[in-house]
What does this fold into?
Amino acid sequence: MKRVRRSFLLLFAAVAGTAFGEPRNFPPGAKKGVLHPGGEEVRRVRIGSETLLLAPGAQIRDRSNRIVMPAMLSEPAPVRVQRDSAGRVFRIWILSEEEAALDDE
It folds into this structure.
């Protein structure tokens, strides 16, 4: 029972770090940009002035690290973007104010 409780507390501490405003760690090569929702075309996103195709199974994570659907995006937001080997976007993280202010690219 103590082992289960300890495992739960460690898991809670790991999740709580992101939930309480600690900046997330992004993979190397995840570029900063500004996401402009694609409007009617949900398979494409505009990052800055570049229109990019979403990869199959692409994930968009909000400021709380929850997965959101492309159609739910309605306003420009600072993001980190990771592309696959074909140049399609397969991960997008919408940045918090603290994460957007970091100059670690």
User: Anything to note?
Assistant: The chain has a mean pLDDT of 80. Residues 32-101 form one domain. The longest helix spans residues 2-19. The two ends are 44 Å apart (CA to CA).
